[in-house]
Amino acid sequence: MRTVEEHQAIVAGLIKARAPQRLSLTDALGLVLAEDVTAPLSLPGFDNSAMDGYAVVADDVAGASAEHPVLLPVAEDIPAGRTDQLTLKSGTAHRIMTGAPLPAGATAVVPVEATDGAIDTVTIRATAKIGQHIRHAGEDVTAGNVVLRAGQLITPAALGLAAALGLAELTVVPRQRVLVMSTGTELVAPGTPLQPGQIYESNAVMLAAAIRDAGAEVLASAMSGDDVDTFRATLDRHAADADLIITTGGVSAGAYEVVKDALAEQVEFVKVAMQPGMPQGSGTVNGIPIITLPGNPVSALVSFEVFVRSPLRGAMGAPQPGRPRRTAVLTEDLTSPRGKRQFRRGVLTGDDVTSYGPPASHHLRWLASANCLLEIGEDVIELPAGSPVPVWDLS
Ligand code: AMP
Ligand code: MG
Known about the structure:
single chain; alpha/beta; six-stranded mixed sheet; five-stranded mixed sheet; 8 helices; about 20% helix; binds adenosine monophosphate; binds magnesium ion
């Protein structure tokens, strides 16, 4: 049997980053920059007013106060967006709005609150320090400087900066495009009536969500019965643009194991010493990596967590691709099978962790309300309350 680490390494070796791609800002959120971003212009781009008020020569309002106001004729009105270049003559004021270009010659802005707000002759009731309420060109960003680094996560604020610099696109590590395929003749899509012996399909929905949650794109989540020809046709129909194929079911030891039967040449089917999730497989189909997960829903999702999620995020450049892991204190006695790494579903509350639901791999209900996985070593068969136990924080 393979160890968890051996299979993790094999899966990680298969999943490769795509070549960097230019994407519009709207599509780039949550991805990672593939290149440094150099500012094509300075920010602010020009000296401008930080307040609604009056541009003045500071000396002209020296000594102004409520008792001894200074009166200045208002020579210009400068709303934000005015594009002509103005010059302020000493002894006059320009009414100016926040973000409007400062006229040449102005050395301060007097806020409207310190004036009577007039548009012909303004009464100014306060002095102004030189430079007051002026935002100087380049004080935020200097053209030519690197403002965002390759490897950085593209956040809303990073997008705001890119837009402020006039950039319409960014060069990113593209999303992985994943094809999900679930198998099983017993499966029926939710929303359809069930015949006796049929069950609702849940893996494709769940894995597609997990893939999107990991930041990747789901090309399709397809369903196939346990018939080799149908399986192959479904795979061929959807696989062309995929960077990764994930299947569920059809890999254990019974008959009608469609994934095993269809992909005997391309996939290495193995047993991994873990519970749940023992039957696994990995390989390539027409050069596209494929990971074949077991069919039980808990096994499928736990296997995705243990083997796929981190390398998938790593291939998209995620700075921290793996789930946060830490040690918590077990609140109850647990037993665990010898020779297998056990991943129990658990609830983490502060530093305490309690297992949640039975270990068997069809108990989806418990997984749905768990917030962590407890990782119990192969050599551990009994774990008393109070033991430290490694947990994967899924929250
Ligand atoms: P298999 O590995 O195909 O033998 O499936 C193992 C168990 O998981 C069986 O009980 C299947 O019915 C169930 N199962 C497999 N695939 C799915 C799926 N996509 N949705 C829900 N249950 C599934
Ligand atoms: Mg099956």
